[in-house]
Specification:
The structure holds two protein chains of two kinds. Helices cover 72% and strands 0% of the residues of chain A. Chain A has three helices and no strands. The longest helix of chain A is centred in the C-terminal third of the chain and has 32 residues. The radius of gyration of chain A is 18 Å and the shape is elongated. By secondary structure, chain B is mainly α. In chain B, helix 1 runs antiparallel to helix 2 and helix 2 packs antiparallel against helix 3. The longest helix of chain B has 26 residues. The chains are: A mainly alpha, B mainly alpha. The interface between A and B is large, with 84 and 107 residues.
């Protein structure tokens, strides 16, 4: 049962990371609201973290580096989410909407 | 097949401890994929956030399988506990009730297929890249434990550690200022 040994194989995690990245890109293009795009961007960051952790587990000589990199990605993602939500609330106060189609003032 | 890096390479039997671990791993991956599908496709934003939380819970399990219980815990604390709740608050404060259900109305015909093909293309390219590359395994020198992580944070990576705390402080102040502006 090679299927049961998947958790010891590097390509499993690389495919999982690629899948998360593809979900993120799909959501960025398909979503109509700013919050939906924010959720999708979290998936892209999670895909990067998964790849770092996988290479850290299987290939890297010093397994601390990937963990620290993932930790910093988490901190950046948290800061990014906080800023994005506050921008969104400010936008909502002015426009009463968060749909991307309605926020086109600068396009004229 | 030198390309597939498996450590150890031998597959366990189904009814053994390692086999059960393999089954649990498959369930964890299913959790991640299901959560991501819900988060990207749900019509209502609240359901999308619930899918995000499910996906990140599964991802914490994946980090556990990658020999880092510390990061699994951090994933649960930061993503499931903080970021998902933050986005849920954002939905409650900044979305009118009728808009939550609107989801994907009046979008152009091309948006769905275009997004799907872009995502599928990226997935196929990254998968082929990951499976075909000859990965080179280096001999291991350090250890996985949390003590080594802490030592590295306070010695080798101390500058980044200080910088990330400044970034977080600026994010807090910026979020407060942005959310304060225009309130009257």
């Amino acid at each position: 049962m090679q299927l049961l040994n998947l958790y010891n194989c590097l390509p499993t995690y690389l495919v999982l990371g690629a899948l998360l990245f593809a979900f993120g890109v799909y959501g960025m293009v398909a979503r109509r609201t700013v919050i939906g795009m924010l959720i999708s961007s979290e998936f892209i960051l999670a895909a990067a973290s998964t790849n770092f952790m996988a290479f850290n587990r299987f290939l890297a000589p010093d397994p601390v580096v990937g963990q620290i990199f993932t930790l910093f990605i988490m901190a950046i993602a948290a800061a990014e989410a906080a800023i994005a939500i506050s921008i969104m609330i400010a936008v909502y106060r002015n426009y009463k909407t968060i749909e991307t189609d309605d926020l086109v003032d600068l396009q004229g | 097949m030198q390309a597939l890096v498996c450590q150890p390479a031998a597959a366990p039997a189904l009814f053994s401890a390692e086999g059960m671990v393999g089954v649990i791993f498959l369930l964890t991956v299913a959790l991640v994929v299901t959560g991501a599908l819900i988060a990207v496709n749900a019509q209502r934003l609240v359901r999308a956030v619930a899918g995000l939380a499910v996906c990140f819970t599964g991802l914490a399990g994946v980090y556990y399988f990658l020999l880092s219980p510390f990061l699994a815990m951090m994933q649960l604390l930061i993503y499931v506990g903080a970021v998902s709740i933050l986005i849920a608050f954002g939905i409650m404060m900044a979305t009118p009730e009728e808009q939550q259900a609107a989801g994907m109305k009046h979008r152009s015909i091309l948006a769905g297929p275009l997004a799907f093909s872009v995502g599928a293309l990226i997935f196929a390219a990254l998968t082929v890249l990951g499976l075909k590359t000859q990965w080179q395994v280096f001999p291991r020198q350090g250890s996985f434990d949390i003590k080594a992580v802490g030592m590295s944070l306070l010695t080798t990576n101390s500058l980044v550690f200080e910088l990330i705390s400044i970034v977080l402080l600026l994010a807090i102040i910026g979020a407060l200022v942005l959310a304060q502006r225009g309130r009257n």
